[in-house]
Amino acid sequence: MAQGAAYAGAAARSDDPSTMFYNPASITKLPGYQVSAGLAGIFPQGTLASGTATTGALFRNTPYAGVTGTNSGLDAALPSFYATAQITDTLFAGLAITSPFGLATKYPTNSIARYYALTTDLRTVNIGPTIAWQATPQLSLGAGLNVETANAHLSNSVDFGAVGALKGLGPLGYRPGSADGIATVKGNDTAVGWNVGLLFEPVPGTKIGIAYRSAMFHQLSGSLTYQNVPTLLAPGFQNAAATAKLPEPSTASVSLAQDFGKWTALADVTYTGWSQFKTLAAYTGSTLATTTVENFKNTVAISIGADYRLDDQWTLRGGTMYDPTPVQNAYRTPRIADQDRIWLSVGATYRPIPSLALTGAYSHLFAATSTVGLTDAGPGTPNFLKGNLNASYNLAIDIVSVQATYKF
Question: What stretch of H or E contains 162?
Fold first, then answer.
């Protein structure tokens, strides 16, 4: 339901159990016992349309061979489950199982971007118990716990030809681009966060929702492995246990839902604290093994939308959102070649019987062309031996979701 209106009014909705993800206080408007299950299909297009790659100045900016024209985005299917229970007239409980953060991109091993990214795969599963209290007829308060497991898989090509040349092995045939291997970091972790919210109804038909979700700080533990390491370089590239820090941002939302007869106008402003995501770095013990500078910036997304109750069985909805990227132009990488997005969403709910609601939504995300401009500034810098990369991306995303809710 929230997606169908481009998440406008998400923290002020109280339509079904999924409302607890956006505002735990909203479940006080769900009498009895209710369950909701959903599935979202995400279909991204992140085409590396054009670009060039060269070695750094240390190797005289020699061109790297490589291909463009590939779609780095990977399709994903994300299930979700929610349940609520009315304990007393004023006390409610809920449980949410979701995947709030994720990312999946993949490049072929002959891509011009291979030294910066091959596979990037982040998957999360969040289990969130919730409690809510209707303090007065106008005010509800809620809080939840978030127990989240994260699994990450990051890989990129390593220019062992350039490494060998740097070590004086040029006479043995080592030169930039002549001997590629792969470095892979895998890890997982479970972290705990929380969320709180309030729902205020100053007059009948007006709902104001305010919600906050805390940041999470994952300390991933796993491994760093290498493939296709030349024999002469093998002592310096041994597989090892690895750790990596993965922060997830806090969010703060203010939402409005205003009824006008058959219509409900919806609006939302959401602040996301991305700026804590400075670097993506992996360590073997206390030694820095690999790093990518991200320097994300905080964002504010704004959405507006509306629901229209056609009759007792059908509700139609739509909305739009301005969704700015946290990625700064100077730090955009092939792993997350993101750009500001405009959402256009439509959706509908059908109630064949009063206790069952079937909902579908479709969103298309428009994004401007994004560019990557990364420089190998030489020894001691994060991009050393990754080369200079200039690339242009064509971006778009389609999201299709379905959901069923049953009231007992």
Answer: helix 160-166
pLDDT digits (tens, 9 = 90+) for 31-77: 999 999 999 999 999 999 999 999 999 999 999 999 999 999 999 99
With H, G, I as helix, E, B as strand and everything else as coil, classify residue 25. Answer: helix
Residue-averaged pLDDT of the chain: 96
- Mean predicted confidence (pLDDT) in 14-42: 97
Residues in the chain: 408
What CA–CA distance (Å, rounded) separates 123 from 153?
Answer: 9
Please name the helix (run of DSSP H) or strand (run of DSSP E) that holds residue 20, with its range, or none.
helix 19-22
Whether residue 292 is predicted with pLDDT greater than 90 in this model: the reply is no
The secondary structure element, H or E, covering residue 41 is strand 33-54
Q: Note the Cα 247 to chain centre separation in Å.
A: 12
Query: What residues pair up with 226 in beta bridges, in sequence order?
Result: 183
The full set of domain ranges for the chain reads 3-407
- Predicted local confidence at residue 136, as pLDDT: 97
The predicted model scores a pTM of 0.93
147 within 8 A of 33, measured Cβ to Cβ:
no
What's the distance, CA 326 to chain centroid? 11
d(CA 59, CA 89) in angstroms, rounded, equals: 73
CATH of domain 3-407: 2.40.160.60
